[in-house]
Amino acid sequence: MSFAAPIALTLAALAVPIIGLYILKVRLRRVPVSTNLFWKQVYDEKPPRSLWQNLRHWLSLLAQLLLLGLLVLAIADPFFAWQAARARRMVLIVDASASMQASDVEPTRFAEAIAEAHRIIDGVRDHDQVAILTAGVVPKVITGMANHAPTLRRAIDSISATDAPSSIDAAVTLGKQLVGDHPNAHVIVISDGAEAAPPDVDWRVVGTAAANLGITELQARRSFVDPVGYEVLVEVLNASEEPARGRLELELDGIIIDVLPLKLDAGETWSRTIEKTSLEGGQLTAKLTELEQTDSLAIDNKAAAIVPTRELQQVLIVSPGNLFLQKVFEANPLVRVTLTNTIPEVWPADTIVVFHQSVPETMPERDFLVIDPDADCDLWTIGDMIENPIVTEQDEESPLMTYIRLDNVLVPQAREIAFEGDAHPLAATVSGEPIYASLDRPAGKGLVLSVNLEQSDLAFRTAFPIMITNALAWFADQSGEWEPAIASGGIASITAAGGEKRTLVSPSGERTPITGDRAGPLAEVGVWTIEGEDSQSTIAVNLASPTESDLRPIAPSDLEQSTSIAGLWFTRPVWFYCAALAALLFAVEWFLYQRRLIG
């Protein structure tokens, strides 16, 4: 036997004063009395001490010495060599993914996992070391190696479930790194078995093969054909062995815009694309309602998406007259058109200027679109006419060229343009001459198209209205036709003016400062808000995970659950038993003293 605090054995010297107090006789006090007749009579009548009366005095002394010995041993903290040799190094991994919120186990799978973790801690022996991890989007160490049971229990109680998927493999890898090459290493995973089991781990599986109907995808984007239209993509999974029925309700800013009946076979994935219109846009919400079967997970019964808002734009067309050009702008309900055939002396504010053929000597300090320019200006010089140009190069990455093909457009003539400053070619001929280019200047953005609309068939093709729609979106600094909903646990890319302070606000109201151009991981389902100094934007986050929505664990044969690793006996340190025996001995001695059996 060894001692953790051998210096405490010196406290055994306290036995000397205890023995001394029992050996020393009490010195009687002299008291004068009037007569000793009565005292003599009492002395004569007092019977001699029996053997038990002499013995119980020494039993009391032995009890006191034994009590002292037990307390000294408890303070010295003794331990056996075999205890140190058999000490275990364990890592307890708790699955905190969204599927652990399923209610097929009362009250939830996560609550049962926490209870199982407490049971494991109750079986931890003295000298065992335990670390606690959570398996979320990224593994998180809740507490490092420790053997203090109250600390471990508090760490377990501090764990909360997330709305994101988990990565069991990454958590197990981290756990194996923590236990190292210890001969008695254990990695314990408490999960619902939604992921395949890594080898060489102890599993505790919670949950049943529960049925669930969940929304696994919801996205909304603006239409490239209808300026006020948008398209909705929704996907629903029936993760059960039985058919499922219900309804899917779509709401835009709290107003129901569509209700779709659902009837899915076992294991079926239902998917639809729905077209709607809205000028204002807003928050789109999909809900599963009136389900006729058991649904054990509520978090995937609702999903959100953001429909981008459309702003009205003022457009001034300076042209000698072209009906196709006029109508392509007037057909857009987001555009307010003003026509003129002369170049104005004063340019209206907050207006996009469209020049057809005629251009001023100095371009205005605002956004402009020039089609078939016929004169030089401060930004370019007109060159020779290009006969029958063939477009062979297009910038496919530019949002200005989205859903546009010019290689099959008939262009009898186009003008050669030499730009004075930097211009970005969007479409160029086989000889490299740009026929469509963008200019991004501090005074305003510009687009130049050198195609003759009267001779070309561009105005008769669908590429022309799409080109104008893309240009208007580019002038309006729109982030795009699509503000994608992010799967929970994902990272959001954000843009803002340099140096602007931004704050990320979760659906539950938690505020986090943003540094850089990325935010996340976003592990809570709902609509997040990014608050800037002069701006505000939103991000929709959904579960969007068929793996998490499918609550059925993998085959039990694939999960090799080990027997309990808890210690069956002698789980507490030796000092605990010494202290317990001392307390018991103290109680017994007090009882016997009160009965006057010893003392």
UniProtKB/TrEMBL annotation:
<feature type="transmembrane region" description="Helical">
    <location>
        <begin position="58"/>
        <end position="82"/>
    </location>
</feature>
<keyword id="KW-0812">Transmembrane</keyword>
<dbReference type="InterPro" id="IPR024163">
    <property type="entry name" value="Aerotolerance_reg_N"/>
</dbReference>
<feature type="transmembrane region" description="Helical">
    <location>
        <begin position="574"/>
        <end position="593"/>
    </location>
</feature>
<protein>
    <recommendedName>
        <fullName>VWFA domain-containing protein</fullName>
    </recommendedName>
</protein>
<keyword id="KW-0472">Membrane</keyword>
<dbReference type="InterPro" id="IPR036465">
    <property type="entry name" value="vWFA_dom_sf"/>
</dbReference>
<keyword id="KW-1133">Transmembrane helix</keyword>
<dbReference type="Pfam" id="PF13519">
    <property type="entry name" value="VWA_2"/>
</dbReference>
<feature type="transmembrane region" description="Helical">
    <location>
        <begin position="6"/>
        <end position="24"/>
    </location>
</feature>
<dbReference type="InterPro" id="IPR002035">
    <property type="entry name" value="VWF_A"/>
</dbReference>
<dbReference type="Pfam" id="PF07584">
    <property type="entry name" value="BatA"/>
</dbReference>
<feature type="domain" description="VWFA">
    <location>
        <begin position="87"/>
        <end position="297"/>
    </location>
</feature>
